[in-house]
Structure formats: C-alpha cells, structure tokens
C-alpha cells in the first residue's frame, strides 16, 4: 500500500498534521486518484516541486494564492513526476505505467526532501507521528527520519525565522523576495532590527533539549525510536502504553475504589447508575423486542454490515435527524458502538494530540476519559446551576486558541437534567460561529424532555456551524446493552468536508465494524410508530419520578435543587456538606453509603462539580421512596450531630 504524496514547491506543511491531501492545483486531481489510500500507517511522502523560473511568475503564483489556501505554488514538472514514479517502481517493484496497481504494492515509508522552506515545528510533529507509525508497522524507512532530520538540520543552518508565523527560510530567499513565503508578511533584512528576524536554531535546540529531558523521565516515551537488535539480544520488555494508563473513567474508578462498604443491614439502593434498564421497571419497546427475536432467527442476518452501517438503518437515522431546513442523507450517518463509540470516533477525527476541546462542567465524565486517551487537552466551561444550567457563554472566548478543535455540548444534560431553550441554543451556535469551532452535540437524550420543554437538535438550528451529533438507543429505548449508536454529520457549508473530516470518520468506521449487525436492523422498528406509545409511556414515568425526586429531596434540610430537571434521567442536588459535618460532597456520599446503603454520585470527583450529587431516578417509585426516606433520616441525624 502506498500513502500520501505531496506535490508542489511550497506545499504548506500544515496539511501533514492532518494526514490529508495537498496537491498542486493543476495536477491535484490526477494524484488524488493515483495515490488515493490513506488507511495504511505506511506513508509514501514526497515533496517535489519546482519554483517558477522568473521572478514575475513567482510573484504571480504567490499573489494569486491566498495564504489560507494551502496550495503548492510551483509547477509540477513532468520529469520530476516521472523520475519519482521511476524511483518508486524500482525500489518497490511497482509495475510501471499501471497506476491502479500501485494500490496493491507494498511499500515502505519513504521521505523525499524538498530543499525549500519548511516549517520546522510542524515538520517535527510529522516526524514524531511517523516514528510511531514506523514502530507500529516495524518497517524501516528507506530514508529514515533520523537521516532526514540530519539532512534537514544541515540544510537549515543559518536560516531565519519569520517573526509572524515562525516559518523558516534561508536569508538569501528573504533578501531576494522581501516577504515571508508562508504568511506573506513583509520582511526586510536590511531595515529590520536583528531581533525581528532571529535565527531560531539555538532557541529551538534548547527547547528540544528540555523536551528530551522531560520525555526521558517517562518510562516508555512515545517518541523513542526503535533500534535494530539481533534476535539473541531481545529481552522481555512488556510495558503498558501511556495512552492506556492515561485513560481513566472517574465514575468506574470511584465506585470500584470506594473504601466504604454499604451497611450490611440495609439493602443497597444504587441511584448512581445511568442505566435505565438497571431495575427492570423500564423496558425496551415491545415491538422492537419482537423484531429482534425475528431477525435473530434469520440466517441472512449474521454477516458483516457495511462499515458505515446497514443502509436502511442509516436512512432511518437520517430522516429522524432531518429538519425542515436541512435534509440529512443516509451517507451522513455512521452507526457506532453506542454514543460512547460515536464520541470516540468524532474526537478521533477532529483532534490531534495537543489540541484542546471545550467540555461542560458539570459534565459527563466520558468526554474527558476519551480525550485523555487521545492526548487531547480538556478545557472546562461552566454551566450555571441557578439559570437552568445554561452555558456561561462569556467564558468561551477566553478558553479558545488556535488549537481548539471542538465545543462539546450535551443536551438534554447528564448529569444536570436540563434542556436548553431555543434562544439559548441560538446563542451557543452564534458563539461557536464567532469563534469558528465545530460543535459536537451529545444528543443521547434527544426527545427525552418533560412536559413544557421541547428538544431542538443543534443541527436543525445551525446554518453555518458544522455539527457532529451523536446519540444511541441506550437511553431513549432503554437498551444500553445493545451498543447501538450513531454519528450524524451536519455540514451545510462543507467545512468538515473541506478539512477531510468526513473522510476521516469513514475511515475510522472501518476499524471495528460495529455495531452488531442484527441489532442495526432493529433501528427502523425503534423509530417507527409501533414504538411511539412505549416511548411516551417511558417519558411519563420518568417525569413522574423526576417530580417525586425533586419534591422529596428539596424538602430535606441541607439539600436543594436549584434547577429542577426538565428532561433526561438525572437530577443534580445541591448539598451543604459542611453543615452536616462532612468535609465535602464525596464524604457525604460515602457516609451515606456506609450508613444507609444508598449510593449517589458525588459531584466533585465524578462531574467536576463540588457541593452537588447526582441522583438517577429510574428506579421504581417504591424504591425511590425508600431511598429518599433514608436520605432524609441521614441528613437529619447528621445535622443534629453537628449541633451537639
Ligand atoms: C449514557 C451516556 C452516553 C453513553 O451512551 P452509550 O450509548 O451507552 O455509549 C453518552 N453521553 C451521555 C451524556 C450519556 O449520558
């Protein structure tokens, strides 16, 4: 398999970071077809190109091109192309004159070096990624990256850096052209004081040194390069990946690691589990179960499905998430392993390591778990407990920077139980548009609202901002064990398409071939009229239990619900832990478990939200009744103890 080819004299190296395609305007289409395959870790990487040979032509090619277009500026010379193909053919025995056969040829990564300008920091990112790819695939680079870096270092000695964009260029070039070839800033070597155009090498070396020291401290650095060893010299050296060790689910960890045990004299009531099926009182729609048992007996139902998912199932989701203003096509739907799988896929497609994503606080902890795993920084924005948990929008501009990849919103909310109003959603979308960030909308509780509150999908309201909406049958249809979810792509302006995000999502879908294909086939039934009444009944039950929860808990001294639930299955309860002699919400929750065998999730460790705890009100009313009366006794008792 071959990978990517980059052409053009000054192909903007930024595109490498996204493993995407960048080709010369004229030749682009040709190469796109010839070398179209990016699924492999193996990368053929070529920078070729030819600067136009007179100043006029050079200037024109620069001036006609916006810096943001990220295109090559040079003309591809056919001889260059031919010699590259020749070289590839010789090294890797690609049949000549048969472009289609190239797809099957197995090739080691190879780097061709263009002695033009290179943005060094980006380049190093590429090298790092390439190192990882090399490690995984255990192949040797024909020109390995160490050699490449040596050549590159040698070549750029004495180069100068543009003060605006940090792009590096040889002084002769700058002198000749008078501007930066990356960002087109005017640069005048003679006029500019030395400190404007400064050689970056030493500074960078220092930085590199520091980085190296840091990573040396880690046991297994992701960047460490592999070395050839003789067979006899290999020794056992198995160690867990950093990625795995930085992947932590706070809820699971808290629950599994809780030091205290429930009171053995009282039956455990877990109001902690966000699983509507946990107590058996809420049920999967009957018709869906019938359809499932029928499908399971069919011989034809058990093969792989298309990696994007069964077509009929995708059409169902597409029409469900189409709105008056925008029709979704089935090709904009990808079926996933639950909402969790959908979130992972979306983050994976949007973010590189070192990017950051804005995430709600209080919020569903899986966002963080997935982002940590991908090496993406989590930046929290706050929800306001006294204004129906609306987003504190004024915080967002302070949180974004050039590496902000997405804004995550969750509506209706877990753990808050809130449902955003139409006007609040419009403000969120406006803000995202101002900041130019795509929205990842966790809409796993779509339509799960109580009377008086309406669910709007972000996609139906956003004309400009791209929305990746995720959801599943887990909560709506009480079937989290089915692991049946989806990503719906709303890209009305083609912004995701332009950045190859859709292609990336499609490629990611090919990793696992989930969800299980018989279950996919139930989606049309679930969203048909046959299941509507079951859904209504579910929501009536949940609403009734939500109101009962708020009524019962807000009467208890020390507890309050500043913004009662409007949907989903949760209620955030504020707790004055100190007034009862507890240090914080975590101690309150563990003591409640120890004395009353009622488990609620403390806000600080689970949702980054101190002085609250989350209650799931899915349990049958009688069970809720028992739990709340135990909580009441517990709170009363501890208020008294505190006083004495
Ligand atoms: C439950 C939940 C999920 C996970 O859904 P699955 O379909 O079980 O993966 C994702 N996001 C939120 C907000 C949830 O509450």
Automatic annotation (TrEMBL):
Region of interest called Disordered, as start-end residue ranges on this chain: 54-75, 202-226
Biased composition (Basic and acidic residues): 56-68, 208-221
CDD domains, A to Z: AAT_like
Molecular function (Gene Ontology), one example: pyridoxal phosphate binding
Necessary cofactors: pyridoxal 5'-phosphate
Family, per entry: Belongs to the class-I pyridoxal-phosphate-dependent aminotransferase family.
PANTHER family (alphabetical): TYROSINE AMINOTRANSFERASE
NCBIfam families: tyr_nico_aTase (TIGR01265)
Protein name, entry field: Aminotransferase class I/classII large domain-containing protein
Originating organism: Galdieria yellowstonensis
Organism lineage string: Eukaryota, Rhodophyta, Bangiophyceae, Galdieriales, Galdieriaceae
